[in-house]
């Protein structure tokens, strides 16, 4: 069950070149292509003539040409040419989806096309803002997109899963948690006073050597599937617990989880910084560290999904205080899906 009237990330802009790109989202097979004039088009990935995926075809000018019999489809999904005849069958068309290109990502709207407004795309400006540097990738995860979001909302696991990168044991033990609900999501703030810096933080060289730090995790979830996390640390007792972060290490972890199916997710992520701009060594360090952490998460999530699938569902019968943000996110998304379904039935 998905929220359809929403923007979803489909690909990185750099991935879409002169060849069509196939991707499945919300249980639907889609094809992305960039037209000759540089704009992005997204169609259902199926030729109406003999059902060959259009992604097996080629881009021809501002159209996508089927690789079987050469029918051409424009960005509206209408057939604009049949090589073997002049007459175009009236039913020779495919569904087209509203699309947008913003922040270095390609977005799709899979609900009511009349409600698709690019101004409502979630704010990920740090991905393309010249005052920041971002590195990231896409993980394909064999787990439901909500499990991935839960993993990001509850960082108490960091002290157990990521001890070689971004975590240590004090993360869960000393964390001070507050949760603020919003109509479209939730903010979870976790402050961790006076703890040793984790390995990744030490490697950046941005913190005083041999000193404990005050850490912060400010996690913003926006339904249906967006999580932005401001993380960092500063020397203990220098004001971070009161909201003064500018003198410490600041990183932003930006996440978009596009559901492929009920049990698989396209997970787009990036780590963003405002220091050492344009330095490849720092790019490589942060990409390697965060990528390693997310590979550790991937193992957990896929094992979790397997267990849930085998046992017939996910139960919240056992919950912890750290689950508060996950509950609020679930509540917000469930409410939006219910409202959308009610609206569609009227």
What does this protein structure show overall?
By secondary structure, the chain is an alpha+beta fold. The chain folds into two domains: 7-120, Rieske [2Fe-2S] iron-sulphur domain (Rieske Iron-sulfur Protein, 3-layer Sandwich), CATH 2.102.10; 126-341, Naphthalene 1,2-dioxygenase Alpha Subunit, Chain A, domain 1 (Alpha-Beta Complex), CATH 3.90.380. Helices cover 22% and strands 33% of the residues. The strands form four sheets. Strands 12-18-17-16-15-14-13 form a seven-stranded antiparallel sheet. Strands 2-3-4-9 form a four-stranded antiparallel sheet, with no helix packed on it. Strands 5-6-7-8 form a four-stranded antiparallel sheet, with no helix packed on it. A hairpin with a 2-residue loop joins strand 13 (176-182) and strand 14 (185-195). The radius of gyration is 22 Å and the shape is globular.
Order of neighbouring strands in the sheet with most strands: 12-18-17-16-15-14-13
Instruction: State the CATH architecture of the largest domain.
Output: Alpha-Beta Complex
Task: Find the structural class using helix and strand composition.
Answer: alpha+beta
Helix residue percentage: 10-25%
